[in-house]
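Handoff note, outgoing to incoming analyst
You'll be picking up this chain. Sequence as last confirmed:
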Amino acid sequence: MSAHMPLALTCGDPSGIGPELAARVVKSAPAPFFWIGDPRHLPADTPWQAITAPAETAQVPRGVLPVLTLDFAAEATPGQPDPANAAGTVAAIERAVRLVQAGEASAVVTAPINKKALKDGAGFAFPGHTEFLADLAGGCDVVMMLACAALRVVPATIHIPLKDVPQALTREGLETVIRTTHAALIRDFGLSKPQIAVAGLNPHAGEGGAMGDEELTLITPLLDDLRAEGFALSGPLPADTMFHASARARYDAAICMYHDQALIPIKTIDFAGGVNVTLGLPFVRTSPDHGTAYDIAGRGIADPTSLRAAMVMAWDMAERRASGGTNA
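Most recent structure output, in case you need it:
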C-alpha cells in the first residue's frame, strides 16, 4: 500500500445517498479515507470516530468511519433536500480541496450534489462540481472524463441542448479537450504514448460532407495539426462503430462531441461501475458516476460499486502522480 495520505471523501448532499454509501464502503474500504461531514447525517447504526486531522485516519480501527466533523445547519431527511444544508455541502468540498492542496490528503472523492439545492440555499454559481473545483484550484482548463475498466470517454461539450452543440464546438475548445486528455492519460493513467479516438459530430462522420461539414472544416484540420506534433489520434470516426469490443481495443480514450455520444456507451457497458474524473486539475478528483438518488435515499439499498471504483481510481492516480511513473 502506498505511503501517501488518505483520500478525502466529501459528504455530498446529506439528503441523498452519499452518507449511507460512505457507511457501507468503510466496511471493506479499498483505500484509506476519511469522511468530511456532519455525523448526524450518517445512518444511525454507523460505527464512526471523530478525527481532528487526516493523519489520524491510520489510528481508526478498520471498519470504523473516520469523520472530520463539519457542523451543518440542520439534520437531514433522506430524499428531501434542505436549503439550510447547502452551505455545509459546499464547505465540505472546499475543505477537501484545501487539505489536498496542503498535502494532508492524497485526492478528493466527491459524493453527489444537487446543483439546484445548492443554488437555492447557498447561491452556488457553478454548473457543477467540475467548474467549482477548477475555481478552487485558481482557474484552469478542466475536462470531464467518464471511465470504467473497458472504456474511457470524454465529451467535448457537456450539459447543453443538442441543437446548441455545433455552435459550441470550436477549434480552440476541442483542442483544449484533446490536449488535456492526452496529458492526463500520461500523468494520471501511466500511458506513455496514449492512443486517442475522436468521434465525428454527424452520422457517418459527415460522410464526406453529405451529412454535415464540421468534420471537414473543423475536426479533421485540427487532428491533422495535432498529429503533426506527434499525437496518436484516429478520426474523425463514425460514433456508431467506435464502441464495440474490437474497436475499443484500439484506443485508450475516446473524445466525443456531445454528452450522450459519450455517456450512452459507457453507461451501457458498465452502468454501476463508472467513475467521473476531472482532468486538468493540479490535484486528483474523482466521483461516482451517479446522482443523489433521492428516491432510494435512506433505504439502505444504494449500490456502492461506483463509489468504490472512484476511490480505487483516485488512489491509483494519486500514487502515480507521487511516483511520476508511467507504463509502456
